[in-house]
Design a protein that fits this description.
Layout (H helix, E strand, L loop, with lengths): L2 H10 L5 H9 L3 E2 L4 E2 L3 E3 L3 E4 L4 E2 L4 E3 L3 E4 L4 E2 L4 E3 L12 E4 L4 E2 L4 E3 L4 E3 L4 E2 L5 E2 L14
Parallel strand pairs: 1-4, 2-5, 3-6, 4-7, 5-8, 6-9, 7-10, 8-11, 9-12, 10-13, 11-14, 12-15
Length: 146
């Protein structure tokens, strides 16, 4: 892990504050006004863009994404696991979580973003401990049986 990556992990674990947002901006995150980011575990996320008034709740795990985007007033609530396996993603939409404005992910979900997940404007991922898997096994990669 790079020094920048280690610093992002440490800063992301801090309680929500304008100081935290300022430090994350200095570490390369694009963060709008009025954003609240609770203490989370963030590791190996290449690019982050968060719109005005967006919210990331406490105790989320966000790791191995190429891109995390939250539109204006989008929300990721508490206790979610957002991850990707870059070797499984396809080139076009690989390893991203893209929440459009006013979209929401409620609490306690597992999101595999290897193939990319986009949540449309005014849409939500809800339910009870939902699991979204966006990768599969390619038939072309299966060994031939004789």
């Amino acid at each position: 892990m790079s020094v920048r990556g280690a610093l992002v992990t440490i800063v992301a674990a801090l309680p929500a504050s304008e100081l935290k947002n300022s430090l994350l901006r200095r570490l390369g995150w694009a963060i709008g006004n009025g954003v609240r980011i609770g203490p989370c575990l963030v590791s190996r996320v290449d690019r982050v863009e968060i719109g005005d008034g967006a919210y990331i709740g406490s105790f989320n795990v966000i790791r191995d994404l190429a891109m995390l985007t939250l539109g204006e007033h989008a929300e990721i609530c508490h206790w979610n696991w957002v991850t990707a396996a870059k070797e499984l993603g396809d080139a076009g939409a690989a390893c991203l979580l893209d929440l459009k404005p006013h979209s929401n992910i409620t609490a306690r979900h597992y999101l595999d973003c290897s193939g990319g997940i986009r949540v449309g404007t005014h849409s939500a991922i809800g339910g009870v401990r939902s699991t979204l898997i966006t990768h599969g096994i390619s038939a072309a990669s299966w060994p031939a049986r004789t």
